[in-house]
Amino acid sequence: MSRLDEEGPAALVQMREPVNRFPDFVAHVVRSLKLLCPAMGKVRIAQFLARAGLHLGSTTVARMLAAPTRRRPAKHEIPNRAVRSSRPNQIWNVDLTTVPTASGFWVPWVPWALPQRWPFCWWVGVAVDHFSRRIMGVAVFTQNPTSVAVRQILGRAIREAGCAPSHLITDQGTQFTDERFRTWCHRRGIRQRFGAVQKYGSISVIERLMRTMKSEALRRILVPLDRRAFRREVGLFVKWYNGHRPHSALEAATPTDIHFEHLPRSRAPRFEPRRHWPRGSPCAGPAATVRGRCGQHLKPVVTHLAGRPHLPIVELKPAA
Questions:
Q1: Which domains, and CATH codes, for the chain?
Q2: Which residues contact 52 (CB under 8 A, 6 or more apart)?
């Protein structure tokens, strides 16, 4: 005790801190991000932090969130029927979906009990690049669009992209089975393909995009009845999805990074909060070198695109 009084706590024999242990503030960063963006899961949090410069595994994030462990269901063998592309603008997917307004799809009186159109819902048409997952074009309609309207969507997307896709995958809706639509594709050198019904990987890319658009954006707002206001909300989601939202299939990169061959922010030099971590040792994927010195203290900075709470932009800055 006299030695402790004279030399302080450093005089005692102490256990060495594990090299791979993250400082306590990292768990605080993870919990703060979960608190600010409750819709994010462990994988999405890990991907946003990777883009900001902090590489954590999804299991590490789960432990920091103290998430209860769940037994994973057994994986079934799925036939490898997924559509594959090797470059941007090789394959595009096009589809249509409905988004209910505050009035809903129906009202309890005839004749408005059945039609799916404005003011009960909006129709949204989307074209997405299969390779980069980038949204190439989007349009809003008051009712089920015709084949002419769909061709106009694709025409604008082709002009903005500067080239036409080699293949176009659609479902078998009346807009896409129309003979004039086939002729339009043939004149532009586009080979039209129909997605197989209930087949894995056929049109899964655009179906997953539609789910993301609804679950992460349109179901978190009061869908407006004004067309300009609704188009603005859809446009903000497209901007956020293409440029700020990390994609699991792209290893935490964004569709814009892959489409234009930019270096993803998740592969840029990273922060390393562990003081004794060897600089040459691997980190949670994607791999990246260490930025500056090890043992840095960080704080999260979360902003929102155009002030929309459901469209977060995550950054990390060194703490003072």
A1: 18-68+254-318 (no CATH), 91-249 (3.30.420.10)
A2: 265, 300, 314, 315, 316
